[in-house]
Amino acid sequence: MSVTTPKGFVASGVTAGLKPSGKPDVAVVVNQGPSSASAAVFTTNRVFAAPVKWSREAVADGQLQAVVLNSGGANACTGADGYADSAATASRVAQRLGLIIDNVAVCSTGLIGIRLPMDKLLPGVDAACAELSADGGSAAATAIMTTDTVSKQAHVTVDGWSIGGMAKGAGMLAPGLATMLVVLTTDAEVASHDLDVALREASRVSFDRADSDGCMSTNDTVVLMASGASGVMPDAATFQEALTGICVDLAAQLIADAEGAAHDIAVEVVGAASEADAVTVGREIARSNLFKCAVFGNDPNWGRVLSAIGVTDAEFRPDEIDVSFNGVMVCRGGQIGEDRTLVDLSPRKVRVTVDLHAGAHSATILTNDLTYDYVKENAEYST
Asked: What is the CB-side half-sphere exposure of residue 243 using CA atoms within 13 A?
C-alpha cells in the first residue's frame, strides 16, 4: 500500500479510455477524516495548467477532502475551457462522494495543448469513486503513470502514525518547488499551517533537487493531506524527518525511472560557503551534457566537473577543489589525484562528491545520464 497506508484514506485507479494503450488513467484519493487539513506546492513555471490553477484555489484555505488525477492529457494551455473542465472534474467527485467542491484538488498529466475528452473522463471519475478502497493505493499509483515504466510508492510508520505517498514522472524533471505529480497522506494530527511548513521544507531538499533534464513541467503538483485518524500528534521535528524521508525516497524513484537513463547519479557538494552555493554547483554539474556523457561512457572525467563549477558564481578557489567518483578522489586540489582506472562506474548508482573547501555547507542533487540519444554519439568524446 502507499497513499492508503495511513488510516482514514481510500483510493482507486481505473481505465477511462484516455490513453490509446487502454491502461488505467484515472485515480481518486479520498481523505475520510476526521481532519481535512492539507497543503500543496506547485510548479513555478509561469505557464501553468488549468488543474494547477484550480488546485491552488482549492487548497488556499488549507482544507482538502480528495484529489482526482488523470493521465493521458495535461489539460495545459487550454484556456477558459480547460479550467471549466477541471472544475467539472472536481464537481463530479464532489457530487458522487458528497464532498465540498472547493475541497477537491485536480491533477492532470500528459500532452500539453489538447482538451481532455470529458465524455470519457467523467464516467471514469464515476467508476473511480465507485471502486474506492483502503487497498486501492497501488491501483491509484498505476493510473497516474504516463511514460513511467513502474509505479512509485513509499510509506513509513512511526509510533502509531503513518505517512504514505505515490508519484509519477519520468521526464520533464527539473526543480520548481515540486516536480511531477505527487500525493502524500498521513493519519497524524497536524494543522494545515504546520503541514505547509513541513511540505515546503521536505520539497526543498527532495523534489526541488531532482533534476534529470532541466525541463520544468506546467503541471507539477505535490499535495499533502492529513486525516488525523491515528489520534497521534507528533512533534514537528519527528514529522518533518519522516515526511522528508518519504519525499527523498519518491524523488530517487523518479530519477531512477527517467527515460533512457543508465545511471542514477547523486552529485554531493560539500565544503560550500553557503547552501545556495552548494545547490548552484551541484545543479550546474547535474545539467552538464558533457558530464552526463562521461558517466554514460563509464569515464570518471573530473575535468568536466571542474569546467561546470567554473561557470557558477559560487565562492571557491580552483586550486582547492577535490572531486571523487564513487569514493575515489580523482582530483585533489584542482589537480590530478588518484588513478582514474580505480573508479568503477559500472553500477547503476553513481556518487560524485565535490569538496569546495570554502565553508561548511552541503547539498545533494539527484540526476542521471538521461541524454541517451546524445550520449550514444558522444560517450567517447573527451575534453
From this structure: 33
Asked if 308 contacts 293 with a C-beta cutoff of 8 angstroms, the reply is: no
Tell me which of 4, 15, 78, 179 is the catalytic residue.
Answer: 179
326 touches 351 (CB < 8 A): yes
List beta partners, residue 354: 269, 323
C-beta of residue 278 within 8 angstroms of C-beta of residue 270: yes
The residue length of the chain stands at 383
Domains of the chain: 2-256 (3.60.70.12), 264-380 (3.10.20.340)
Cα separation, 140 vs 182, whole angstroms: 11
Per the annotation, where are the binding residues? 146, 168, 179, 259, 378, 383
Q: Can 157 be counted among the known catalytic residues?
A: no
CA atoms of 225 and 31, how far apart (whole Å): 7
Tens of pLDDT along the chain (383 residues) come to 799 999 999 999 999 999 999 999 999 999 999 999 999 999 888 888 999 999 999 999 999 999 999 999 999 999 999 999 999 999 999 999 999 999 999 999 988 999 999 999 999 999 999 999 999 999 999 999 988 889 999 999 999 999 999 999 866 555 565 457 999 999 999 999 999 999 999 999 999 998 877 677 888 899 999 999 999 999 999 999 999 999 999 999 998 887 678 899 999 999 999 999 999 999 999 999 999 999 999 999 999 999 999 999 999 999 999 999 999 999 999 999 999 999 999 999 999 999 999 999 999 999 998 654 444 444 443 33
Q: What is the largest CA-CA distance in the chain?
A: 67
| Cα–Cα dist 110/21, whole Å | 13
Grid coordinates belonging to 304:
568536466
Identity of the residue numbered 332 = R
Q: Identify the H or E element spanning 284.
A: helix 275-286
Residue 379 confidence (pLDDT): 44
| Residues of the binding site for substrate | 146, 168, 179, 259, 378, 383
Chain-centroid distance, C-alpha 185 = 15
Amino acid at 162: S
Answer whether 23's CB lies under 8 Å from 15's CB.
yes
DSSP 209: G
In 3-state terms the chain splits into helix, strand, coil percentages (rounded to 5) of: 35, 25, 40
